Structures are given as C-alpha cells and as structure tokens.
Task: structure prediction
Amino acid sequence: MSTKELHIKSIADVNEFLKLEKPLHPLVTVFFGGCAFENLPQSINGVEDITFVNDLYFISMNGSQSGSFNYGSNSYDYDSDSVTFIGPNQVFNFPIQYNALNEARWGLIFHPDLIRDHELGIQIKEYTFFDFDSNEALILDLNAKRVLRGLMNKIFNELNQPYDKHTDGIIIQNVASIFKYSSRYYDAQFQDRGNSNKYLLRELELYLDAYFSSHQLVKDGLPSINQCGQALNLSGPYLSDLLKKETGKSTKEHIYALFIGKAKTLLSKPKESISEIAYKFGFQYPQHFSSLFKLKTGMSPSEYRNSIQVIQSI
Result:
C-alpha cells in the first residue's frame, strides 16, 4: 500500500485536514476530546498511511487511549495519559482512530511565527523534549493532567474572545507555562527512573569504552550524542537530559571527559607525535585536536606534554 505524504505548513492546513471551519487564529489552534476530529468522515481513507511533514509545533495529550506512533523509521507504542511533543521539520504519522471521541485527549498546534518575536522564540530551544522520540513521552499523573488541561482551557477561551492587542501575549504566556510545567514533570520523571538512570550511565560507559577502543574512532571521530542514544535505544537529547539529571553532566560532557583522559594518557608517552595522536581520535587536521584539547584543559597538547615531562624528570 502506498503512503501519502501531507505537508503541514500552516494552521489552515491543519483545519483543512480536520474538516474544520476557518481558524480562530492564523497561528494557533487547540482541540479537546473529539471536538477537532468529530467532523471527519467515518472512514478517513487510510490515515495510518499518511506521512506528515510538519512545519509546526504540536503538543498532544493522548488521553485514555493507547496506540502506535511512527517517528522516522521506528514505530513505538504510547501509553494512556501521556503527552507527545513534536517540533518543526519532523516527519511522523498517527495510525489511530482520529474520528473516535475521546474526552481525555487535547492538543495544541502553533506556528513558529507565533513566538518568533517573543522571548519564548529563543527560550523554546531550551526545551529539549521537542527532540525526544515518541516512546519518551511525558507521563502525567492526575494533578499534572489537571494543570496542563487548565492552561489549555485558558488558551481555548482566549481564542474565542474578540482579538485585541493583548490576545497573542496571553496565549504565549500560557504556552510558556505549559512548557515550564512540562519541564518540571520531565525532571520528576527522570528522577523516578532511579536505578534505571544508573544502569544507563553504566551502559554508556561500556559503549564509550568499546567505541574508543575500536577502529570506528579512527574512521569516524568522536561519537555523537545521537550515536550514544541509539546505542542505548534512546534519542540523543533524552539520554543527555537523563544523564544531566543523574550526574550533572550531559552526554557530550561524558564523551569529552573520556576523550581528554585518553588523550592525556597518550600525551604522557613521548613515542607518538601530537599529529599521530590526533589521527588516532579521528581528527583529520591535528590543529582541530589541539584546539579542542586546549578548550577543555586550558593547555595545548604540547604544553601538557612538556608539563608531564617536567614532572617525570623530578
């Protein structure tokens, strides 16, 4: 069966797909339960086979329904009472019954232009959950569901008021609150993982030790955050946030710490030149190795080597 690709560029595109009336606001829309989907025909002609190319921000409370969510080439199951975050430039599809009423479900969709000239347009980059995979959704307890639902109610009510100079500011303020509360709830979710986080840290250490001992290091250079995440069956950003909560260091900081440690070991032995050491770490140009080493240690590789030789000569 062929897959249809649908490019969602605007709120108008969303409303057209959902067979809704003209948007109340050109840059943002919300839905509750089945209200946004109730106008769809009984058969939507294979919505599960539609691949969405997305230019918008999409926050969806799945409600008391479970199903599958495809992200890239992977398919994941999602739990009830969880929130999924999707950012611009992502590709996804939802093989679920959109026309089924579900009072616990809600969603917020907005165009980046809504916040582009607002401080939230910069702050949103700090909310890494837009880069999480769908199986890393935010799980909500009863109180969290009430808080986020209340904020959604405020946005919905504002959209149904006559537009004035305060409208966008009030909407953005509530959107920002949704992000702040979601960040708090994710922190709690990371904390609840407890021993699982320690297990992941150990798994990361084993992966990095194996990687730094393999030919892949010479071929491809230092591993990326996403490589580390994939090795542990997580997205790179989710793994990094978990580690930050557990150890105070991001995935990149763990990678650099191991790199510096191994580089110092090699530099303490004079048998290899700095260029040869740089190539061992996959650096095509030795000066890039030297720049990174100095950035992380405050000394160039040659300065570090000289300091070690002085100590060894005493």
